[in-house]
Description:
Number of strands: 5
Strand order of the largest sheet: 1-3-5
Strand content: 5-15%
Amino acid sequence: xxxxxxxxxxxxxxxxxxxxxxxxxxxxxxxxxxxxxxxxxxxxxxxxxxxxxxxxxxxxxxxxxxxxxxxxxxxxxxxxxxxxxxxxxxxxxxxxxxxxxxxxxxxxxxxxxxxxxxxxxxxxxxxxxxxxxxxxxxxxxxxxxxxxxxxxxxxxxxxxxxxxxxxxxxxxxxxxxxxxxxxxxxxxxxxxxxx
Length: 195
């Protein structure tokens, strides 16, 4: 009889251990206080942002929590700056005209089917600082700076990457496009004045 009890006890322990292991392996949420793990909460937050219109004050503050704000003196400065940019982005026409600095030897060399992902909504933001940020000082003498204009539907803007860039490099006023700009339409290009 004691062998049967030992067998039942061992079998029961193995069964309980198996059930616990299965629950642990399939658990995507933290059992502690019913909270999701940080990475799951972050992914849920990112997936909840489909357009700039989804960004309320609370969600802008969550952006600061998830993506940081080291480029700013403090959290409140970061919040105010990002909020102002988001309000501007929410008011942009659809599609919106965006600008990008590029370097080519001849305007005919511009690849209108490979538009890239880094843009600004401000024509005035394409200047000497922009050129330095893209390595202008290393270009040969034949390479000249051009401004490229593209028309972009809002659905082709990478909202999360744009937020991250704006928090990391606030003076660049950058808007990032999805799929390296494949959803954008080339409008025109012209030589940057003064260079």
